[in-house]
Design a protein that fits this description.
By secondary structure, the protein is an alpha+beta fold. It contains 24 helices and seven strands. A five-stranded mixed sheet has the order 3-4-5-7-6. It has a two-stranded antiparallel sheet with strand order 1-2. A hairpin with a 3-residue loop joins strand 4 and strand 5.
Length: 657
Amino acid sequence: MKRKLSATLIILLVFLQAYALQKDIRDSVLSLQHFPSQIDQRVDTLNEWAWKSRNDEPQKGLDYANWALVLSEKHKYTKGLADAESRLGTLSLRFDRVEEALNHFRHCANLRYQQGDSLGATNVRQQIALCYRMLREFSEGMKEWVAVLTYLENHGDSLHLARAYNGYGLFQLEAKEWEMAKNYFQKGLEIAERGKFQPHLAELQTNMSNYYYYRNQLDSAIYFLELASAYWHEEGSLQKEAMHAINKGNVYQELGDLGNAERQFRIALSNYQKLELPGAQMETWFNLGRNYELKKQMDSAKSCFEQAIELAEANNLAWLIRELLPQIAEFYHQQNESEYAFELMRRYTEVRDSLFTLEKNQQKAELESEFELQKSRKDLELAAQRNAQQRKENHLMALIGASLGLLLLISGIAFWLFYQRQQTRIRLDEERLLKKDQEISLNGARAMLNGQEKERKRMASELHDSLGNLLATLRLQYDRLHDRLEKHPQMPDEVLTKMDYLLDETTSEVRRISHNMQSGVLNQFGFVKAVENLCDALESSGKIKVQLITAGWEKPLEKNLETSLFRIIQELTTNVIKHAQASFIKLTLIQKEKEVILEIKDNGKGFDQDDPESGIGLTNIRSRTQVLNGTLTLKSEPGNGVEVRLRIPLKQVKNDE
C-alpha cells in the first residue's frame, strides 16, 4: 500500500512540475508565481520583460523577445508574435543592427495589418522610416513617410499626427531638405499648440532650433531653445534642462557671446552634478574649458580640463576619454606643455586600443552567442517533446494498470520500474543540457581571449608597416650627416633641416596611427596620391631616387583593398631602404578590369632566394597577399637587385568582402 501511495505521489509530482516550471534563456528556471502557465499570458509577460529591459539590460531583453517569438510561432499567437517582432526591432537598434531591426519592423507591420490594426501598423512604419534614415536610403524612407502621413491625415488623431510631422521633419533635416523640414516642424508646432501637447511641443521647438542652427540663423535657434528649456525647467526635468543649456552654450559660442555661453554651461554642470551623471559632467567641464580657451583665460581652461580628466578616470569613462582626450592633449601641446600632452596621448592610446579590442570581441561573442542560443532552443524543444511523449506513455501505463484489477500489484511494480528509468533519462537529458550551456560559456570566453591575442598581433604588424619606412629614411639622413661631419666639422644646415622635417613627419605619423591607424592622405585624396607622397618622402632623403609609373587608376578601389596595397608598398620600400643598399627604385602600379598589378624593382645588392632568413617584411607581404587571394612573384640574386610582382584579382576580393 505504501509503495502504491509513493508511486501515485511521484506521478502527481511529475505532472505538477510539467506545469509549474519553464526554462528561462538567461536565468535558468522561472517559478510559476512569476511566469504564467497560459501561452498567451506567458508570451505577453516575456514581451513586457523585454520592453522593460531595453535600456538597462538590452541583451537580456533580446533573449526574452526571442523566446516570446519562438512560443508565438509555435502556438500561432499573432498578437504576441507582432509584439515580439516590435521588441526585437527596438532592441536591435540598441546594438546598431539597423538591417536586422528593419526586417523585424517589416514583419511587425505586416502582422498588425493582418490583425486589422492599421494605426498600430502605421506607427511601426515610422520605425521602418527611421531605419531607412539611419541606412541613408532616403528614397525608401520617403515612401514609408508618404504612407504614414496619408493615413494619419485621414484617420489619425492630432497627437499621432503631431508626432508624425516631427519625425518626418527630422527625416527631411537629415536629408538636408531644409525648407521641407521647416514646413513640417511648423505644422507639428501648430497642432501641438492647439492640443496643448506640451512634451511634444517642447520636442518640436528643440528640432526647430536645430533647423535654424544648421541654417546659421543662430538668433532664431536661441529663441526656440529658450522656449523648450522653459518648459523642461517648469517640469523640473534637470536632465532635459541641462541638455538644452549645453545646446544654448554652443550656439552662444557660435555667436561669440562667450559670457552667456559660460553661464549656460554652468547651469548644465550644476544639474548634472545634482543628478550624479559623471559622463555628462565630464563633457560639460570640457565645453567649459573650451569656452575659457576662447576667452584666452588659459588657467581657467586648464582647471576645467583637469576636472574632466579626473572625472573620466575616476568613473572609468573610456568612451569619453577616447573622444575628448586628444583635444585636451592638443591644448596642452599648444601651451608648450608637451610632456603632459604626450602622457595624455599615451593614456588615450591605451583606452582606444582596449575599446577597439572589446568592441570586436563583443561583436564576435554576440554572433557566437546567437548561434548557440538557436541550437539551445532546438535542444530544449526536442527535450520537451521527449518529456511529453514519456508522460503520455506513463499515462497509458497507469490506465492499463488500473484496468487490470487482478494484476494491479504486478502492474504497479512494472510501472514503477519503467517510471524510474524514464526519470533517469529525463535527469540525464537535463544534465546534458546544463553541461552544454557550460560549454557554450567556456567557448565564448576562449573566443574573447583569442580575439584579444589576434588584435595585439594586428597592431604589432600595423606599427611595423607604418613607422618602418619613416624610421628607415631617418636612418639614411643620419648616415649622411655622419659622413659629412667627418669631412666638415661645422653642422650642415640643409641636413639638419631635412632631419627636422623627418622628425615632424614621424610625429605626424604617430598621431595618424593613433587616429584609427589609417593614412590621412589615403583617406582624403586617394590611393595614387598617397603613393606619390610616399615616393616624395623617400626621395627627400637625397640618397635614393624613385620612379613611379601608374596606369588605369581612373576609378578608386574598395577602401580596404587600397589600404592593404598601400601597406604592401610601404613594406616593400622599407625593405629596400633597410636591406638593399639601393640608389634607385622603380614602382609600377597598373589597374586592369579584373586585377591590380604591383611591381617594384631596385638596383641594390639582392639576396639568395634559397636563404630561409627572408625577414619579417616578406612574411607580412606574403600574408597580406594571401588574404587578398593574390599571387606574389619574387626574383633576386646577389648583386642584381630585387624584383617583386603582385597580382591581386578584383572580383575575388569583392566577393569575399
